[in-house]
Specification:
209 residues; mainly alpha; 2 domains; three-stranded antiparallel beta sheet; 7 helices; flat
């Protein structure tokens, strides 16, 4: 009987011992919250701080994923190599790369020179158009996004010529706006080239070394 009483007493003591720190913790937390709220920070400021924290956390997680070493198997290496070669030999061949590097889209050019944009957009809709290596996949996504930005700039600033069927250019009658359009297209084209060069550079290190 005495043994049972001792066991019950020990159990009660254990429960009380677990509850007391919890109560103290919540009291401390409540005190901290009261002090924090006493500063009367506007609700919109709290929302901005919260959004900033979430954004920073997302960026950090994304970068960690990007730089985390990826171990290839023979099968996964072949899959990523096939996609890598498709990008640099089919989607962006030498002629298309030359056009981008020379920024031909700021002057008169043939509409066939834009085919690569539609081909890349169509390829990107294929679920297999994806690198298994997270680092390469992030770089590829950034490159595709830069192409979409170039396409937006072109669609707003280039038009066909009546005297040259099949050819496109920034309207010659534009004055100041023509210069701004040229600079915008030049900037977007340069970003596409930078993203592409980085993808190829890192791709060679990851896949061919």
């Amino acid at each position: 009987m005495n043994k049972n009483i001792i066991q019950v007493g020990a159990s009660i003591a254990t429960i009380i011992g677990a509850i007391i720190p919890t109560i103290i913790y919540w009291e401390q937390l409540s005190s901290i919250a009261k002090v924090f709220l006493s500063y009367r920070i506007p609700i919109y400021s709290l929302i901005i701080i919260l959004l900033a924290i979430i954004l920073c956390s997302t960026i950090i997680k994304r970068r960690r994923k990007q730089w985390k070493p990826f171990k290839y198997t023979e099968k996964t290496l072949k899959q990523d190599l096939d996609l890598f070669n498709q990008i640099k030999t089919e989607l962006i061949n030498e002629k298309r790369l030359y056009n981008l590097k020379k920024n031909v889209f700021s002057s008169l050019f043939h509409h066939d020179d834009l085919e690569f944009i539609y081909e890349i957009r169509e390829a990107n809709q294929n679920p297999e158009f994806e690198f298994l290596n997270p680092r390469l996949e992030i770089l590829k996504e950034e490159w595709v996004a830069s192409i979409e930005e170039l396409d937006k700039a072109l669609s707003k600033n280039i038009f066909g010529r009546r005297d040259s069927p099949g050819y496109l250019e920034i309207p010659r009658e534009w004055t100041t706006k023509r210069y701004e359009a040229e600079k915008l297209i030049e900037k977007k084209t340069e970003i596409v080239c930078q993203k592409y060069d980085l993808l190829i550079k890192i791709g060679r290190r990851e896949l061919l070394s």
